[in-house]
Write a sequence for this structure.
């Protein structure tokens, strides 16, 4: 039990727990919401897959600061996104735009569902064909016999 | 016929997926097109890293093809590419540094400007100095406007001050030959042609 207490002490002293978190203060709660949403949906350009809220990379901190500044200046959510896209490209926003490059990404699921629908309809048809009149008559007869 | 189709269809799908995944093996996940391509260098007014009284703006890129190299003494890969860049300078390529300091950020612990200058002297003395001069991007504002994600990164800027290439990562012989040289020769021809027509 003692070693456990010691371990807890060491853990609580580790620098990661004392890391300085930058505090962004807003006058309006609406602005804070926009900031929150933006830092979760803007992608860190340095990291492979992290939003700027999660990332500690220098560039993410700079971007967060910039987002804060812009919101304070009265930029709308879309204006901030455009500002970042102008600099870091479409990559920076987690929602990809519809363009020739991303067409497959957007249309893929629709195409796939269409394909499945076609296959289902065709199978249904062949199954219906399978019940021909002779078979039905036979079945009727069996039912009659059972009575 | 139907059986053949049932056999071929999965095979075809398998081959398609294989080709797609094979491509992924050789693609560079950090490579992406800069959105500033063929656009002029954004406005800025920043001091020289060695001398506060000297200030630079986008006009420093006018009239000459320039490599803008983003670096810092804290960045190991930047030091690694210094000898190669110095070689380029000796061949007549104009290279301007865009210096930014990680340690100047309060989040990373502070470092004084004189300490930075000392470190730069030391690093350049050790590995070679490819720079005509260094722009000090203290707040990393120009870096943000240029879409810089870290260091080292290098831009090729033509004589009209337009960005023609944005490379993320170090510049070495292979990158220079394959990526930079074709564009460099193209814009250098431009400069030569402009000078001829001006005469």
């Amino acid at each position: 039990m003692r070693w456990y207490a010691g371990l807890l002490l060491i853990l609580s002293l580790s620098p990661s727990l004392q890391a300085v978190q930058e505090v962004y203060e807003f006058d309006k709660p609406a602005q804070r919401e926009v900031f929150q949403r933006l830092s979760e949906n803007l992608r860190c350009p340095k990291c492979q897959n992290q939003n700027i809220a999660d990332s500690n990379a220098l560039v993410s901190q700079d971007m967060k600061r910039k987002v804060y500044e812009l919101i304070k200046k009265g930029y709308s959510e879309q204006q901030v996104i455009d500002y970042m896209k102008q600099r870091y490209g479409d990559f920076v926003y987690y929602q990809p735009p519809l363009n020739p490059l991303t067409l497959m990404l957007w249309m893929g699921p629709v195409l796939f569902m269409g394909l499945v629908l076609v296959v289902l309809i065709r199978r249904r048809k062949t199954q219906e064909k399978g019940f021909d009149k002779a078979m039905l008559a036979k079945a009727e007869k069996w039912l009659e016999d059972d009575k | 016929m139907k059986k053949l189709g049932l056999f071929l269809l999965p095979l075809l799908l398998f081959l398609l997926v294989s080709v797609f995944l094979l491509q992924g093996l050789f693609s560079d996940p950090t490579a992406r097109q800069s959105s500033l391509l063929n656009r002029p260098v954004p406005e800025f007014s920043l001091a020289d890293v060695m001398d506060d009284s000297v200030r630079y703006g986008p006009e420093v890129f006018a009239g000459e093809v320039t490599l803008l190299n983003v670096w810092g003494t804290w960045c190991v890969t930047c030091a690694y590419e210094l000898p190669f860049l110095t070689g380029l300078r000796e061949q007549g390529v104009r290279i301007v540094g865009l210096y930014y300091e990680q340690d100047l950020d309060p989040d990373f612990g502070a470092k004084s400007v004189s300490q930075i200058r000392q470190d730069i002297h030391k690093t350049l003395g050790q590995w070679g100095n490819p720079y005509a001069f260094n722009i000090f991007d203290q707040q990393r504002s120009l870096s943000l406007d240029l879409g810089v994600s870290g260091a080292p990164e290098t831009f090729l800027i033509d004589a009209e001050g337009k960005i023609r290439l944005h490379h993320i990562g170090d510049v070495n012989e292979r990158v220079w030959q394959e990526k930079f040289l074709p564009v460099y020769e193209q814009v250098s021809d431009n400069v030569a042609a402009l000078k001829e027509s001006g005469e």
In short: The mean pLDDT of chain B is 88. Chain B touches chain A at residues 29, 32-36, 102, 105-108, 140, 143-150 (CB under 8 Å).
